[in-house]
Amino acid sequence: MCSAGQYTIMNPDILRERQNATFDIEKLTNILDGGAERTNRRREIREVLVLNDPDFDYGTPTSLPTMILKLREYGISDPVEINWYKRGNPLEIHLAMFLPTLLNQATPEQMDRFFTPSWDLEIIGTYAQTEMGHGTHLRGLETTATFDPATQEFVMHSPTVTSIKWWPGGLGKTSNHAIVLAQLYTQGKCHGLNAFIVPLRSMGTHMPLPGIVIGDIGPKFGFDAVDNGYLKLEHVRIPRENMLMKYAQVKPDGSYVKPLSSKLTYGTMVFIRSLIVGNAGIVLSQCCTIAIRYSAVRHQSEIRAGEAEPQILDYQTQQHKLFPLLATAYAFLFAGQYMIDTYNRISGDINQGDLSEMPELHALSAGLKAFTTWTANTGIEVCRMSCGGHGYSRSSALPDIYVEFTPSCTYEGENTVMMLQTARFLMKSYRQVQAGQQLSGAVSYLNKVHHRVMAPQAVSSQLDLNLNTLVDLYEIRAAMLVELAAQSIQQESARGKCQEDSWNNSTIDLVRASDAHCHYMVLKMFRDKVDQIEDPGVHSVMSTLAHLYAIHGMGNFTGDFLQAGVLTGAQVPSVSKCLKGLLAEVRPSAVLLVDAFDHHDKMLNSVLGRHDGNVYEAMFEWARSSPLNRTEVHESFHKHLKPLQAKL
Amino acid sequence: MCSAGQYTIMNPDILRERQNATFDIEKLTNILDGGAERTNRRREIREVLVLNDPDFDYGTPTSLPTMILKLREYGISDPVEINWYKRGNPLEIHLAMFLPTLLNQATPEQMDRFFTPSWDLEIIGTYAQTEMGHGTHLRGLETTATFDPATQEFVMHSPTVTSIKWWPGGLGKTSNHAIVLAQLYTQGKCHGLNAFIVPLRSMGTHMPLPGIVIGDIGPKFGFDAVDNGYLKLEHVRIPRENMLMKYAQVKPDGSYVKPLSSKLTYGTMVFIRSLIVGNAGIVLSQCCTIAIRYSAVRHQSEIRAGEAEPQILDYQTQQHKLFPLLATAYAFLFAGQYMIDTYNRISGDINQGDLSEMPELHALSAGLKAFTTWTANTGIEVCRMSCGGHGYSRSSALPDIYVEFTPSCTYEGENTVMMLQTARFLMKSYRQVQAGQQLSGAVSYLNKVHHRVMAPQAVSSQLDLNLNTLVDLYEIRAAMLVELAAQSIQQESARGKCQEDSWNNSTIDLVRASDAHCHYMVLKMFRDKVDQIEDPGVHSVMSTLAHLYAIHGMGNFTGDFLQAGVLTGAQVPSVSKCLKGLLAEVRPSAVLLVDAFDHHDKMLNSVLGRHDGNVYEAMFEWARSSPLNRTEVHESFHKHLKPLQAKL
């Protein structure tokens, strides 16, 4: 579907929104890209990949060869750059997981044997980890790889129904190889999970090989174009040399050599989760672009009797739905930038043997992945529903955005599990403070915890809601919830519960603590970013948005701030008044602020989100070209309706 | 897709859950149905419509004739009964809107001419109200019906792109008639919206008639089986007698006769919204059945090191996701019962000329429609995501439930608009109290408002969290938020804003007030229902659920209760502790409580929600029968992959 057709006249409502800008949109776009050069680079790639090609359409199998050829031709290999252009397609796992895993874990001999043909797409691979009965908890995986020294082979086997590999993208029909995660057994002992390259289909005929029971797992919420698959291994033999042996090894005699460090695969996970944080921002920025542009051209009901129907963007309730999400989109884009930058910096350190900052980044990436994807997931639907009925039409693009995004709450670490990983780090940090240690980094606010939380800051009679104060209040809130979670664990222990049960009986509190920690971190990153902006116009509008992000969160979690004693019941209406003031402040810049995201019509692919605002004409055109309209009388009339009428 | 195949052995985990029940499930089912007789009636209908027919499958066009024939054969015409069995199909609007509108608004002559052929499905009708540019605000509709006395015809016309009728179900390809809502012009004057029967397609060939531009609006989020359509009327002439004239009339000379009361169409709207409230409960009960049964058989991770992976239902976080929704499902089912019962009672009064209770029921039905659909909408997704990756598979049924339910947040009155309708009633009531009037009915709590809210109840040092106290606290919360919204309007007026702008600038507060009012009402209905239960076992478990519903809401809106001064910061951890205690209390009965909803496997159609718990076997079977698996090598290999490989 394409909704980027051209009309000569811009909708007058949206034209008016673009007049009298108080800031330079291009400068803001540059900040989002990380500099003017990177904006140019992004646009060049977009030109080449998307705009120059009238036939280009995401996710359709026919566009894939074009895309891959172009990526190779123009040497586009930076995952952050590719990330802007990939949409669910059957080769995504090949590109995003199979090739990188080879790069990371294959020996030089394996690189020769597998990487080159994979680069040329003779080998098409997938990454088979999740099993029908096992997800985030990797130790529970059941697939076995048993070494047989007599033949120098591994026997790959799925012993149960629950051990069938399930979900890998491209596994069902597309891939001819898979990297399979399996429990390694050799010399009668289990050595835990290792990775093996398993040929699945014949290179010539593409028929499944002996012992390979393979297929598509059936229709899903979305991703119709991707053949997520299942794989049942029935005593399949592969050569010893197909185990990825850059780190761990099995020698010809069957002896096992442990990897030097179990933390070496750690980095990729942190990197991917950091990308997801930024993606949450991208996706929200797309949805806000669609919903805010549409709200600028949609007229409905009345505010003042007898006057023309107002733009729905003038309704306070509509602003209240969309502007906090607009602020959140910026917040998450900046958080994504921070994560990637920090990852790159720390990776440098790691190469020099310094792993000290890794645990903190690991903990933060887990929590932020959950925090941002949950928020964006809900936010997409708020945007969709703010477009009324038309948001439900796929011409709006919003339903597709939702079904493509929502799996990220589950994959790369189920969100609740992620929050609890962060909580584990927070609890450890809290115990360190209690033991008298001085913490540094993101959790340094816990140093002050027992001075402050137990006797909260005196509430000043005049409520101060400026941005820096708000960052402090979020810090106090996070500290309080960390402390309460720790207390819950202690109380459970005091009631005689074992350590594990005490933990489980406190997980509601632990998730809340992680959530508050992440919220604080995102706000802090937003504030810090705004502080760096030199251009006065951009600085001003971004300060307003950061402020809105903070105040809106305070409105949602008033209870926490009241509980922490940094706010009184009598002051709550001031928070609400401040929020309303900020919504009114954002209103004149709302369309400009989504323009700055620089989503091209052809990539947004939404009749509601069109840059020129000609929504209704485009929607009518889109509908008329619907498949059902190819004939005036649909075949179902003859097939179903006539026979039914005949029976009555 | 069918997932109701039989396995001989019940999964041992779910078998264990059903042992040692503390209450009689059948008695609870009877309460949900409104008596043992109605349970039997429901099961009889289910037997006839669904279970006896091995080919029956919802929503597929082939099942439709069977279903309609059976409804006629067994004389099933009660909308509440049909409501259990209908799923999105192209004839839904014909059955649910076209026929009832004829019954309500057609003259005897029109009944002869249209109803009989419609009952026999010669005429297939839809209800064309919404336009591309106009939704909930009916006065904004643009379609015109201009009376021409010379020919005794109405000229039906769509003057603009935005006036094209858009969305009606079955309009695109199925219907040959529509009831069209249009602005009536006669003798040079506009008389507002009236309803007209417009033939769309030739009865023989089904081809569109002259001047009728008609088609499908294109792919949507869901409802693939329904041809939602567009209709552009180009000076289409219909006879004068095609205006629905039971109430309003246009005489042959063109003079207009007003209907006696504009409130006569009112009732249907209230009834439909009341049905939606109950539907929100049904849908949540389905999702809870799926998620809770699956959580009882799914094992994952570990609580205690070295022990077997626990049922995920034993994780506190999983309980925290699902049990409050389970309580909400019961709350909404009871609220739906209350609304239909009250509607029936008041309808009786209306027939005797007493309209006094109608405004309150109208206001309540608007707000509850929004309150329950928003909550259920979010709740479906919480249930889906609580099933991990498998929730994303359509074999779980959860994606389909979501896309079928989510439009109810928009149709029959957009939810934010609905909340503001309720708010209008609350503000009117509040002004009446201020003027010294004594209110009765649901808003009588506002009588106490200025004694109580301004000087909140003294907080007792020992926090009392029993159910009756909680109902009182929700009442105080609602009263406070009504008062704050009224104050916001007054303050805006005092700042010199006109009445309409003062209202618009207070709509955030008004929506919150309505939300709190609805929350209070639902809790009160739940408590009242529980009070009527005589059986001690059922009473006990339902008390726990009602208590959980109340405490969970208090946890979500702690800020309001703190602000109202009925809770202190130091008491908040007690609320959290109480919540955890209730989750643990519900745990042993969780599976029994979803069994009591009595959703048959064949209707639930979910591999995860199977009564026998044989989830993995059923999922594997379902996947193997996926359309993509008909051949071992999919055609895309030859069509796309081979050419791509050849190019590299």
From TrEMBL, chains A, B:
GO molecular function: acyl-CoA oxidase activity; FAD binding; fatty acid binding
All residue ranges annotated as the Acyl-CoA oxidase C-terminal domain in the record: 466-644
Keywords of the record: FAD, Fatty acid metabolism, Flavoprotein, Lipid metabolism, Oxidoreductase, Peroxisome
Record-annotated Acyl-coenzyme A oxidase N-terminal domain positions: 67-124
Positions annotated to bind FAD: 130, 169
Pathway as given in its UniProt record: Lipid metabolism; peroxisomal fatty acid beta-oxidation
Gene Ontology terms describing biological process: fatty acid beta-oxidation using acyl-CoA oxidase; lipid homeostasis; very long-chain fatty acid metabolic process
Similarity comment: Belongs to the acyl-CoA oxidase family.
Annotated protein name in UniProt: Acyl-coenzyme A oxidase
Organism: Gadus morhua (Atlantic cod)
Gene for this chain: ACOX1
